[in-house]
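Chapter summary example.
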Amino acid sequence: MKLILLGTGGYFPNGRRHTACLILPEVGVVLDAGSGLCRIGEHLQTDQLEIFLSHAHLDHISGLTYLVNLVPEDVLSQSTVHGDAEKLAAIREHLFAEPIFPVAPSFRFAPLAAPCALMDGGRLTYFPLVHPGGSLGFRLDWADHSMAYVTDTTADVHADYVAQIADVDLLVHEANFAEDIDDLPASTGHSSLLRVAEVASAANVGQLVIAHIDPQIKDDGVFDLAAARRIFVNTQIGVDGMELLF
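The structure predicted for these 246 residues follows.
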């Protein structure tokens, strides 16, 4: 299975990274709809999309407004945006309010209420994360491969979500901060690299890719990958356009 990172930044896009968006093109699954969704036209392989939103902060939903121009109408009308019911209601009321976006989207909204079936026999489950306003993490399982997506939360080996991601082949986890200075990650609801590496080790995942990187970081060299790899050896920094097989 192939995962493509369309957007690996957080908060706002910059010259190096768009905001949060991942796609599994073979099964038409999109995880978050940040500005990275502007690249979706290059990767469409299915006649419908299943878009799962972790939460409704703008850097995770702004791309929904791009779809009307980037996705053929016959695909868009068969597509579904999934998420927490309260968050979806806010998106419909505000992001797609007529004065802001006068074209009503043809995709449908579906509140998450149970695990979701995916193409090729897959299954998506979701779990709550600690973040201001609330967030969701996702685990996707097929018969012989699995992955998890965890963003907008503070990494902690004692957090409840660690059990939910146990033994996945691939973990994409936010590391907005390179270091944990002045307790900034916890106070903002985000994570730092070494704490994420600890989570990956505790969860016994196959590989770790960090994303949702602070757009004010101009050089990924500030991330001490050597230190992270001493905790969890198979750690790498996600970049826009990266393709991962799991």
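To summarize the output: The first strand starts at residue 2 and ends at 7.
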